[in-house]
User: What shape does this take?
Amino acid sequence: MATLETVAGRERGVLRRPTASTGLLSWFTTVDHKKIGIMYGLAAMVFFLVGGLEALLIRAQLAGPDGQLLNADQYNQVFTMHGITMVFLFVMPMSAAFFNYMIPLMIGARDVAFPRLNAFSFWAFTAGALFLYSSFFLGGAPNGGWFGYAPNSTTDPTPGMTFYALGLLITGISSTVGAVNLAITVINMRAPGMSLFRMPVFVWMGLVVQLLLVFALPIITVALFEMLFDRRWGTHFFDPTVGGEPLLWQHMFWLFGHPEVYILILPAFGIISEILPVFSRKPLFGYQFVVFSGIAIGFIGFGVWAHHMFAAGLGPVANTAFGVSTAIIGVPTGVKIFNWMATMYRGDIRFHTPMMYAIGAVAMFVIGGLSGVTHAIVPSDYQQTDTYYIVAHFHYVIFGGGVFAFFGALYYWWPKVFARKLGEGIGKLQFWILFVGFNLTFGPMHILGLYGMIRRTYTYPESLGLTFWNQVATLGAFLIALSVLVFLVNAVLTQLKEKGLADEDPWDARTLEWTTSCPPPHYNFEEIPRVRALDEFWHRKYVEDERSGRLVPAQAGASEEDHEGGHGIHLPGPSFWPLVAAAGLPIVAYGALYSWWLVGAGVIVLLVGLYGWALEPSVAEE
Amino acid sequence: MAETEERATAPHTPGHAGSHPSAREYVRIGLILAVLTGLEVTASYLDVSGAILIPTLYVLSIIKFLLVVMWFMHLKFDDRRYSRFFVMGLAGAATLYLIVLISFRVFGG
Amino acid sequence: MADVAAPAQQHDEHQTTTGLPNTKLAMWVFLASECLLFGALISAYVLYRGRDETGPFPSDVFDIPYTSVSSFVLLASSLTMVLALAAAQKLDVQRMRLWLLTTALLGMSFVGGQVYEFTLFHEEGLAIDTNLFGTTFYTLTGFHGVHVTVGILMLLSLVGMSIAQRLPPDAAFPVEMVGLYWHFVDIVWIVIFTVVYLIPTPAPGG
Assistant: This one.
């Protein structure tokens, strides 16, 4: 029998340990992966809206020739922050939201490996995001593009790119620490019987993503420090006037930046791999191929970075090598697509909203992938690079593939997290508005790019003949905005409904997170499950009838072998030290901008937070 | 190398093969590290061409590196999985940065 | 302390999937990522080596005997670190504290030596913004020095916590973890000492 040991705190350590598990304040001290996941999700949605507003500003400015809405300087800040926001403050934290909430549940664990570190990751992320946005009020936002090419970024006299370097250093710390945490969780905290090849694909993709982060983030960390030093203290890392190499920045940025785009999309691939089987009532076709191709994409992803630099003058040998590696990486991706299609083939398909989004994501990703393949061909890329054709490509893969998958995940897992289902009718309406709006926005960009419309410019003259498709794209963008509004309405109306599901397994799903209540209790599982197969939950519900071979419901009631037997449930208690430690980081960052005293103060706050953390037992005592 | 084993009386961290080098072994390795460093410094003063000196220095430093990683950091005796992760990082770093340096023609090209 | 009897390494009484402790696995993953961090800094140094038109140049400022002593000091600190661990494993708390303190002191001498070295270089006209050599040298060795300093803080914290009875009686695990970090910082220096100080920089223009 499981016993729950109370985690009541007691006077201990420097300050009394927080004890609350409900109420507003409890969110600031929580170390529960589910609450942290929800906070990541909320923050990500907020930044999705902010980044979306920036997109609307861009599209409004470019709706017609000689736009007057934004001048060049303002436009630079808006498009830069749009990119930074969407990549670092929306997609990555949204993935973190799903990974944090679902991975422990999917592997039968009670929490992640390092719960306080998890809280620290979230607060550091929040601090970094706010720090970045404070730049708008402190002299100007980053304006050198999300890619920050030197020497433009290192010589620009406005403070924006210093905010860029410092802000991304803070969010980088958050992601690195979070990545180590989730990687160890997946490797080391699986329920008995859950071998690596009985893990859901979503968990596998999670593991690959965390390892990509761990190995790619240090590279951008160094690059950002070098940029910071060039800007603030006169170093010459990227200074061509004394022999420095601006191209070094590009190499380092893309050494990180390319794995980064796989970091952005692999969670979506994981989500799709969960949704398609559930709504086809069929197991994922070629599970091992899907897993291995994910690993291959991660690995090869480190070997293609210079395809972002084909026009930088690296020479034919380098260009050829990277062209070949880029072509190769299309193969494992294609493998996934075929396996997803085979999963649906002759399945009992149910077109609920999550399924529509998953199928939509696959379709849109294929389009984006096709344009990607054309980029891999170096001479062809010479035409496409720095044009809107590239903008079309990456929006089709990240938005069409990634964001569609995120919406699918929101509809799929909403009942698990909030004990209510998002409205189906509104959901389908929202899907179609988004689908039409998205394609109207980014489809024409292929054409605009091939007509020669260059990226990153704030306006264009009438004489170039780009006006019509730009108008269409702007119309599409406002349709996207409408669909997001519809989603928000759906979400609000849903949350106003009474909490509680008639069926706590509303989709008849396959994986362990659905064995818990909606939402799961604080400790996730009454007893740790014992896993005997891939899609363990499905196999507990259904067996194959011996004579007909068809699936029939299994014997009701849990068998003895389903659980590990009673253990005391020890859960780490809440703590405010991670928040304190995280608060030190932006203070240091402001110090790097303004005053060494602030740097010192920030370091002290950080150390106080770390020491308080170290001296506090991780499990609160009775 | 660890002929004499002193059995620790505290519980071992899981993942150990069970053998620990003794304090004497560690001191021996420390001395070897000192000698190797001395050799390196001496070599740097010799009037030999870079083609001989540089590989020599690299070899000596790699031996020192391995001694610390395998014995002091205990990877030789620990579970293979720790090594796998570390090698991933090390090999990854070496490969990626070598490619970048080659593209800048640092090694003449 | 309620969980004194529990294994020192983790607060999770449950077995981990691999049988390896979470923290040790995490430390090795972290050290793997640090290879990429220092690799980038070292590569920047190697990239720009010999490219300066104006000095000071390495041969102008380097004092190899002096830095060699620093290197011996840091290597010795790795030895004392591993002796601290051995003592911890034998539950010899006094010896453990002694060796940890010695390691920290050796580390402090190293950092002190570096700071003094930088001051001399500065007087000779080498600042971080002087030329490519100054830029890459101070950044690389500065990052390393900060890492050593963090290590010293952790070592002193271990000693302090041990004295304040805040470590479990079997302190071997946290000592081992700090040790892994400390040795890593040492092996980075092994590379830096060879690549930066010992390998000769080609003459300007050559």
Residues 132-163 of chain C form the longest helix (32 residues). Chain C has one domain: 22-198. The mean pLDDT of chain C is 91. Chain C has six helices and no strands.
